[in-house]
Amino acid sequence: MEKTYNPHAIEQRWYETWEENGYFSPDMDTEQTSDSGQDSYCIMIPPPNVTGSLHMGHAFQDTIMDALTRYHRMKGDKTLWQPGTDHAGIATQMVVERIINAEGKTRHDLGREAFIEKIWDWKAHSGNTITRQLRRMGASLDWKRERFTMDEGLSEAVKEVFVRLYEEGLIYRGKRLVNWDPVLHTAVSDLEVISEEENGHFWHMRYPLSDGSGYIIVATTRPETMLGDTAVAVHPDDERYQDMIGKTIKLPLTDREIPVIADDYVDPEFGTGCVKITPAHDFNDYDMGKRHNLPIINILTVDAAINDNAPEKYRGMDRYEARKAIVKDLDEAGLLEKIDEHRLMVPRGDRSGAVIEPYLTDQWYVKIAPLAEPAIKAVEDGDIRFVPDNWKNTYFEWMNNIEDWCISRQIWWGHRIPAWYDDNGNVYVGKDEQAIRQQHNLDDSISLKQDEDVLDTWFSSALWPFSTLGWPDKTPELDTFYPTNVLVTGFDIIFFWVARMIMMGLKFTGEVPFKEVYVHGLVRDSHGHKMSKSKGNVLDPIDLIDGIELETLVEKRTSGMMQPQMAKKIEKQTRKEFKDGIPAFGTDALRFTFAIQATTGRDIKFDMGRIEGYRNFCNKLWNASRYVLMNTEGHDCGMDNDEMEFSLADKWIISRLQQTEQQVIDSLNTYRLDRAAQAIYEFTWNEYCDWYLELSKSVLNNDSASEAQQRGTRNTLIRALESLLRLAHPIMPFITEEIWQRVAPLAGIQGDTIMLQPFPEPQSAQVDQDAVDEMNWLQQFVLGVRQIRSGYDIKPGKPLNVLLANGSDSDKARLQRNETMLIKLARLESITWLDDDNAPESATALVGEMQILIPMAGLIDIDAERERLNKEIESNQGFISKLEAKLSNENFVSRAPEQVVAHERQKLTETQNKLKSLTEQLEKLSSL
RNA sequence: GGGUGAUUAGCUCAGCUGGUCAGAGCACCGCCCUUACAAGGCGGGGGUCAUAAGUUCGAAUCUUAUAUCACCCA
In angstroms, rounded to a whole number, what is the distance separating the alpha carbons of residues A78 and A30? Predict the structure, then answer.
């Protein structure tokens, strides 16, 4: 093996091998599908946008899913991690449209069919970026089953669902106020609208009463909408305006008269207490208009320009142009009271960034209440469990206030709505035109035209857990893997996606789509800020894996900026934070970094120090393995000759391994990847490397050790490492595979890949508590010597003579058994039991009550040792008085559980003995 | 305005159903290139667990209030 861990050299190669050999597949081809009592395990990947590229959120999420998948596969479950991508209607259309625009054309020049053809072309050539990147992450997805939300089978499922919902009256067409994106020319759902506070104005306008008795002042943030006003509303109890109610107003700049009405909705405290009502362009006003039977006057075109319902002067003006003109005209007419600065919530389309207008159009809707009810119940009843649990509150909150889902979009890329119209405007819904003609007895003399709209992308995503498995056909896949086990997702799409999958899954399969929903946090930058292109703080997971030069990174972060003026600042920041660019950490280090920070429900602040530390951990594992291989390759490790003798260290490390395995299993079962990773880290570094490997040297490099002893140690070295590799494989697949290939044969294990080896199962019979206790004693001993050494600046290499006093029989027996190891580990010359009285001046350490004495002659300063002892005594006295206080509290003694009290008593005794021993030492020094 | 979560060492975070004077990594200080590893080894310093009250024999942990921050919804 190479001296230094080099992830590049191993990662790509292993992934190709795994994929080529079909290790990712659950083998549905074999006959034994759902028999044999084998458990199945299935995770659906949240399908990334086909236009997308891997970002830190994906990398985090995929690490979690892959770790779970690999764990279950090794456990022996029939395991499927289902891959695929989403057609991402608006996003994809925009990407391809931009390419066409660059060629000086629009999509309208091409026409619908040719444009869609272009998109398919684009997908064929450029649509696999993200799947390539997923492979770099080591994701063990079964690529043979990769699906796309627009492929044939899934489109079939979409039609099936649409038709059935329509036939049950759960899909309807209606004229409603929708969120209209005037740039994309489509309706968007509430969830696709992002409202943020922006600076704006509050215009106060005078509306004259028709009878000439004065005017009412109304305030608005969108003065151009006044052209569509059909009333002014006040609160029914508002004393200021009682006599106005029922009167009419002469709406300025128009020739219309509108009533003053009373409605509870009006907040008398806000503004003047008078509200202009524009039912066609405001959601609240729309509701109020319905309550009061107000006319609805649409004044905007699809581009959000003023249409022909408005006075001629403003027609054709853009909404903001019209705003200026109207404000000016009002001002000139003396009808502008004042203009205030104002912070207001501005709704923007999440794709286009355009300011959304409420707009009255014909759209398709899903009637959601009947679907929501069982979906709420499924979570209430525990058929679906959220991890962490509190996310169910968010889910309930939304589901209980859910509104009908607008599913039609006025774009070209997507599932076309399976509805046809005849010349009389009758609607027919069916899978295709032919089916409809047949069903409704329509011959060719009647022309049918398909609805131009496509479905919201999330409509097909909602079917993902079963459409990918072949639904509506009854497939073996569906039978085996549905319901799936867990959905791993960020909280940001609980509404978009999770809730809708639950509703659709229950509706069409009668079962929940997944039993658990694991909700993970967001990956932020090291300062806790959201990563975004415009802030220039984005990290690309691939750059962390492969490394990147500073110049390339700067270029990457500053190119194609929406706000080029930010580029300077970003460049400066980047140069400061990454002086030497980013080194190549490798996939395993990145995955480990994510895993160990995957505490449930908490955001991750991505810190370069962490990933560096875990890259070092990979290196540690690598070098430890090198040591093991050096000492086992070509030697008898007990495979051929089972005459072996196991040392204390051997028994101890095997015991600790069992305990670690249990901890990892428990942690993985409860989605605590952080604890699993932590347990692996601590065992590997602090126990296996720091202690066990060192102890093994005193056997392997010791000529007087017997063959059986050496064999026992080699056997333990290799077995423990082999298990550890399997234990760590789900989190760090590449390095474990690479090392395992060499280690496994030495441990007597045949197999082509670690991927398909069984996951370690702890054996309680292998836990030797006596060995654990004795090892603890040995560690205390070594630690005590080291502390003295370090405390008095004694050279690490200088062999010391150690004296022992006040030892029990057990101490003596333990010393006898472990003397060789102690001498080697603590670098001692000799260990001698002392007759009580003739101790020379010494520095002291304690192991329990046994005293370790290191004679000071020529080594140690008496005053310093005295000071140290005094400090130690003081601290122990403090502890004792605390314990005494506790134990003399009658309430404690009588009410606390016996065990706890006994434990405290024991601590007291131990500490008292320790104190006594320390005091003796101090006295000895003082008397000299 | 409603909801959720957070607040523990200089930084990033653990701390499970209350019970070993509060833990890890990074950073810091000291010693060491000891034949697996300087991407390392050994040792060390550092926190009145946001604040206040309460429950309890006992609170970082449970309850309530306050403060600050973050996110979601309106």
Answer: 12
* pLDDT score of A28: 65
Q: Does residue A763 have a pLDDT over 70?
A: yes
How many other CB atoms are found less than 10 A from the CB of residue A764? 9
Indicate the pLDDT class of residue A469, thresholds 50, 70 and 90: very high
Q: Are A307 and A299 in contact (CB under 8 A)?
A: yes
Tell me which DSSP letter residue A605 carries. E
Rg (Cα) of chain A, in Å, rounded?
Answer: 37
Summarize pLDDT for A27-74 with one digit per residue, the tens. 765 554 445 567 889 999 999 888 888 888 889 999 999 999 999 999
Directed axis angle between helix A809-826 and helix A648-669, to 10°? 90
pLDDT in tens, A543-592: 999 989 888 988 888 887 767 777 888 888 888 888 888 889 999 999 99
- Count of Cβ atoms closer than 10 Å to residue A263 Cβ: 17
**Location of structure tokens 């789509």:** A513
Looking across all nucleic acid strands, the nucleotide with the smallest C1' to CA distance from residue A878 is: B21
A875 touches strand B (CB under 7 A): yes
- First vs last C-alpha separation in chain A: 58
CA of A2 to C1' of B34 (A): 22
**Does strand B come within 7 Å of the CB of A909?**
no
Cα atoms found within 13 Å of the Cα of residue A207, Cβ hemisphere only: 33
CA distance A712 to A879: 43
* Predicted-assembly ipTM surpassing the 0.95 threshold: no
Q: Are A188 and A358 in contact (CB under 8 A)?
A: no
What whole-number distance in Å separates Cα of residue A499 and Cα of residue A496?
A: 7
Q: Which of A42-46, A206-210, A272-276, A340-344 has the lowest mean pLDDT?
A: A340-344
Distance A402 CA to B2 C1' (A): 16
Pair A600, A388: CB distance under 8 Å: yes
A903 nearest nucleotide via C1' and CA: B20
Mean pLDDT of all residues in A367-384 = 89
Q: In strand B, which positions have an atom below 7 A from any protein CB?
A: 3-6, 11-15, 19-21, 25-27, 30-32, 34, 36-37, 39-44, 56-58, 71-74
| DSSP collapsed to 3 states, A763-819 | CHHHCCHHHHHHHHHHHHHHHHHHHHHHHCCCCCCCCEEEEEECCCHHHHHHHHHHH
pLDDT at A30: 55
Q: What is the DSSP string of A123-145?
A: HHHHTTHHHHHHHHTT----GGG
A523-524/A604-605 β-pairing: parallel
Asked if the model's pLDDT at residue A732 lies above 90, the reply is yes
Mean pLDDT across the stretch A834-853?
A: 80
Distance (Å, rounded) from C-alpha A538 to C-alpha A733? 26
A284 in contact with nucleic chain B (CB within 7 A): no
Strand A84-85 versus strand A147-148 pairing type: parallel
**A447 burial class (0-12, 13-18, 19+ CB within 10 angstroms)?**
exposed
List, in sequence order, every residue forming a beta bridge with A504; answer none if it has no partner.
none
